[in-house]
Specification:
2 strands; 8 helices; two-stranded antiparallel sheet
């Protein structure tokens, strides 16, 4: 089992590295690059499903901090596999309740899943587009409480967060 877990940690880290390298293709003007991104995230989503079958949510206690974050990233990018995203969200919620996963990462995954379901997000982590040079979030359930809810899970206020997306 220990060897399996060590191999799993390496596999998850490698998947995250491939994701980072390929992410620039996600919104490419080239359909072939977009397709390459979709295939990669689909493969990763399938594999995460298998990992969750065998281990449950890959927590930092199980696979280490880097691999646990990689699992979250893979779930976050499984946009065309809502079943995988929903299952990851459910397992990650249990892990957060047990104190073994990040409430901040859970908030991002919750928003991403809600947006993919066509529903309003909670924390304003998902950006719909840019208007007059300013990033605009997908609609939120309680926009007036967004920054308060963000603070509860360790996410900076929306105005600070979106500076990262603003063209310099």
């Amino acid at each position: 089992m220990a060897h399996d877990v060590a191999a799993l940690a390496v596999e998850l880290a490698n998947m995250a590295a491939a994701d980072h390298q390929s992410a620039v293709r996600a919104n490419s003007d080239d359909p072939a690059e977009q397709l390459a991104w979709r295939r990669l995230t689909a493969r990763h989503g399938d594999r995460l499903g298998e990992i969750m079958d065998e281990y449950g949510w890959p927590t930092a206690e199980l696979v280490g901090e880097e691999a646990a974050r990689a699992a979250w990233l893979i779930a976050q990018h499984s946009d065309r596999q809502l079943d995988v995203q929903r299952r990851a969200l459910h397992l990650m919620q249990q892990a957060v309740s047990a104190g073994s996963a990040s409430p901040r990462e859970l908030a991002f995954l919750r928003d991403r899943t809600l947006v993919n379901e066509g529903r309003k997000q909670v924390y304003g982590t998902q950006i719909a587009g840019v208007k007059d040079g300013a990033p605009i979030p997908w609609p939120c359930e309680e926009p007036e409480r967004m920054n308060e809810l963000r603070a509860e899970v360790g996410i900076e206020p929306f105005d600070e967060y979106v500076v990262k997306f603003s063209p310099a």
